Structures are given as structure tokens and as C-alpha cells.
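Dear support,

I submitted the protein below through the web form. The confirmation email said the job was done, but the results page showed an empty box. After a refresh the structure appeared. I'm attaching both so you can tell me whether what I see now is the final result or a partial one.
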Amino acid sequence: MQQPSFRKWLYFTLLALRGQPLGAYYERFVREDQKGISPDTTKELLIRLLDHCQRSVPYYAEVMHRAGNTYHKDPEEYLQRLPVLTKEIIRTHFDDLKSVDLPQRKWYFNTSSGSTGEPVRFIQDWDHAARTGAISLLFSRLVGHEVGECVARLWGSERDIIEGSVGWRAQLLNWITNTVFLNAYRMTPDRMRHFIEVINRRQPKLIVAYANAMFELARFVERERLEITPPGAIITSAETLHPFMREKIEQIFRCQIFNRYGSREVGDIACERPGIEGFWVAPWGNYIEITNSRGDREPPGVEGEILVTSLTNYAMPLIRYQIGDWGALSPTSWDNCTARGQVLRSLLGRTSDIFRNSQGMVVESGYFEGLLYFKEWVRKFQIIQKSCSCLLFRIVRNEGVPPPSQAELDGIVAKTKLLMGQECEVIFEFTDDIPASNSGKYRFLISEVSG
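What the results page shows now:
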């Protein structure tokens, strides 16, 4: 078995050879976190980002011209002069939001996770991937896991379900990073029993999991009275971790659980960490604002809509991005130069329901969300499990985009039946709008089947 330090060196070296300085960023963030992060870190990164936007991003050059060029003095206050960036603005001004130096960058397309039911496509560059990846590794380190030590990921892979295997590159990466992959999209009793066997044998220092999938696995262990070797820690993400879920997972796995908050658009934003109450926002990655319905900032402790400014993506900057979640900030403080900065005191939204097929198998509902990624004709969606053998895709189409072909719809049906069973009825309902619930929240994944 290779030592963790060798795996860490090999992983960072291979990425550096490909032009991704993830290791250098990681070591820097660890060093600054240990010695004390400068209170000016986020301010300096905001100024650098705004300089780039004024010089190289047509959309922001125009709005900043109207807002004035006074951001060097107090960039955090200056942001309030800029418009909120919505998904609709990204769609409408896609070309003007791209940096003019994009041809000189290594970049790629990505799409939002659909957590608000309105997926949108955007562009990211390799430096963004390196910096956000380093922040993710730092979050793991803060709860006790170092790069190269065993980590189990109870996560999802559409490719693994459709193709039946993970490619050799992914297998090699998993070996180098000492990662064991547990497919959350297929959680039959036999598979969950196998997951526990793997955890007991590999004894991971950390488990990273969907909140709902981890909760279901804990319930299975309790129901089947299985023995479990406690991991070092658990990080949950992608879904709301309710108090009753946290209590059950910690009770069964006998270790502390930490919740993490992030998105595909801006990377990992914040994570719970020992010694801090709430979600600590990594100051190198993102800047958070909490606003009311009029777009005005709310004071610390008051809940409102979360706006995120990514400090890492220069290929297509996202400033004051309306991410679709709600929360509240704690008062900002820097105690004796120790890392504090922004802390999300509370986080609301992102409530996903667990789906079950006719055999009673738990099916991670995020799988079906992924089937609509990169579909230009999808503007907004809601997926509802009407029964164990019926799934409804409710979709608002993008205007000016050709409708889906029958082949596209048949492909979604076939992939749905891979998990739900061949007897499952798949219904597509195209509608003009999908309203929010009475509470004002928009649920994009709904199960009407009692568990």
C-alpha cells in the first residue's frame, strides 16, 4: 500500500504537469489558514477581479462604466452598485459575459446543478478548477483528512449506471488519491451491505456523501443491525442536512458529521469546521451577500437571498450571482488574525426528496436532474414521483430553441427506466411556468410516495 504522502505528491505532480497548480494553491491555503489569513484577502481578490472585468469582460465593462470606477477603496460596498446576476441574464448576455482573453485560456463548459430547477450553461477555466479544488481539499483537511489518506465517496455517477463501469482514467485517479467510490445512484439492500463491507475493510479517514444517501445508509445499518467501523469524519453536501438526519448519522457511524455548501457554478463555498459555529466561507473562493426582495443587503443575523461573487473564475466572471438559496451571515470578525471572515450562520433551501422504485430500492433523485443537464430546450423543470411506477418530468421550454426530438425524449425515458424499472411510466408535461409553493420556496424534486 502506497503511503499517503507519496500519493499526495504524485497527485499534485501529475496535475502540475497538465498545467493545473492545485497543489501549490492547496499548500498556500493550508499555510495561510494555520498562520492566520489576512483580513484584506477577499478585498484584494475582489479588486483584482473587478480590474479584470472592467478591462476584459464587455458586460461588466458597461455596467461598471455606469457605476463609476471607485471600487479600489471599498470593493465590497461597490458591489451593491452592480446588478444582480440572474440565470436569465447569463442566457441573454452569454457572449458579453465571456472574457475577451478566453482564446488564451484553458477553459470548458459547465452547467448549473439545477438546484433551483433552472439549469444554465457557463464557462470555467483551469485556474478556477485548481483553486476551487484546493479549497475543497482544505475543507477535508480541516475535519481530519489529508490528501492521500483513504476517502470513501458515497456520490453519483450517471456514466457508471449507463455504461456499467468507470473509465480507466477515473480508476487511476481513484487509486492515486486513495478514493473508494460508492455509487449513491444505486442503493439496493445488497449494494448497501457491500458499501458497509467496503467501509469496514478500507476504514476511510473521511466519507463524503450526499446528505440523503448517507441518511438512508445509516437507516439501513440500524435496520439490519450491522457492525460498522467508524470513519474519521463525514462530510455531507449537495442536499439539506436536517437535524434529524445529522443525529441519526452520527449515532450510527459514531463520528462527527460536517456539512458543506457549494455549487457547480462557483465550487465549494463554505463548510462547517471545528471551532466555528456555522459554515465558514473560504475567503479565497467566494464572497457572500444576503439581500432582501428589493436587492438591498440584510444585516448579519437576518435571513435573505444568497448572492455569490466567485473570486476564482476569470473566464466568465459571476458577480452577485443569484444562486437560488437562502441564508443568514454571522457578524464578520477576525480574532487575533485567526481565520474567521464570513460565516454563514444558517442555510436554507435545496430540499430534495428520496425516490423509490417498485422494488423498494432507494434511488437518489439527483440522478434524474442530471438527465436534463446541457439540454438547451430546458429553461426550468420539476421532477415528481407520482408513484413507485410513475415519474413526471414537468418542463418549461426555452423560447427560440427547437423542441426536443423524440430520440432525446426516448433517451431520457430509457435512462430513467434503468433505475426505476422497465414498468415505470415516464410522463413529459410541457408548461408555461412552474410556480413556487405557498412558502415561497421552489421544489424541483418531489416525491409523492410515502417512505
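Response: this is the final, complete result; the empty box was a page-load delay. The mean pLDDT is 90.
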